[in-house]
Here is the input.
Amino acid sequence: MKNWKLNSWRKYPVKHIPEYPDKKELDQVLNKIKTFPPLVFAGETRHLKQQLADVVDGKAFLLQGGDCAESFAEFHPDNIRDTFKVILQMSLVLTYSASLPVVKLGRIAGQFSKPRSAPTEKQGDKELPSYLGDNINAIDFTEKARKPDPKRLFKAYSQSASTLNILRAFSKGGFADLNKVHLWNLDYIKKSPQAKKFKELEDKIADALAFMDACGITSDFNNRLYTVNFWTSHEALLLPFEEAMTRTDSTTGENHDTSAHFVWIGDRTRQLDGGHVEFCRGIENPIGIKCGPTSKPDEIAKICEVINPKNEKGKITLISRFGHKNVEKFLPKLIRGIKKEGLNVLWSCDPMHGNTIKSTTGFKTRPFNDVVSEVKNVFAVHQAEGSYAGGLHVEMTGQDVTECTGGARKISDADLSSRYHTHCDPRLNSDQALELAFLISDEIKKNSSYSKNAIQAAS
Ligand code: PEP
Ligand code: CO
Here is the structure.
């Protein structure tokens, strides 16, 4: 890796990284974090990269989901369990209908820092620095709370470690057993139309398992029926922390950011000559790049080349987030620009960040129909361009929140105030998330068979 060092990003311009008032204290905290155990290890990131390479080849689908911002206040085992349950349910819906394995990637166990549209927030006559995520400052609207505090990084590290620990237990300890699918249902959605559909799926799976059981294939003998791989991800925004968590693998000499399996660069920090791209080009982890309406196809292609000079499959995931009305305008050009350079990328769709609006009641929200419509438009464009729409990136939670309008339970603008808990952007509740999975499973089926045919024709 030419001229790359753990701290070489510091020589480049960076956006959305706070100025800490006490730099000495920040350095002390970071030096301590450098001595902490890694949260994930190199072999795992390599394994995930292989799975993502399968997605690039149209042999699997990627589902990435979780909170917009994790918070210290919402840290609770039930919340982690319920997000995990919904991701499992969505994956099952997608796997069953499209007959494709689903790579499960949480926006979890480290998704704290947020880029903000404005550096300050005004309430009445008072103006204070914006809230930047619980690992940087606090959400309360006081001067003290909004001051960046390096010690918050210790709490964020510790929360990430225990979140990851319980996720590993859930994934490998029997909770994800296909014989226990019925236990994944959340109480509050039991009466919804999604629950009825999911029950039908459960019954079909139970029949298939009974048949396999009769043939001697049971979860006692087959690990695959009993465990899942569940990976973690967050935006690599706060580079001082990411740098402190990056370690050199003793067996290969490669650098891995051990704060998560997968990290992404946000739409506001993906400048070709910026510190975020510089940092990410030196780490082995698979990298996501968010692409919004301001992305220029040749610039995105150059970023891919800088981060992935060997054009390795599974290394780069381009996450498009144009807004449902803008997909046709921007996505075809981006796909063609990437194709022209012969770059291997996984195409994922984030239908959330381009569809955020202010409700009539003053809340930031996302109409469920717009979310669905962006996904459908993205699938249609990929199909027309002969590429494979391989992933979905959503902000969702297992909790019964009212943050996005619409869906089967028809959440209205007036309902938003009832359970609006997010620390940043509005999330799909589990009912809406599951509904989205059912709605798009047919699209995936069409798209994956299309891509398989295209791959066969090309080989
Ligand atoms: C996010 O994923 O929370 C985010 C800030 O997205 P984007 O960079 O696409 O705006
Ligand atoms: Co967000």
Residues 8-176+227-458 form a domain with the TIM Barrel fold (CATH 3.20.20.70). Residues 430-458 form the longest helix (29 residues).
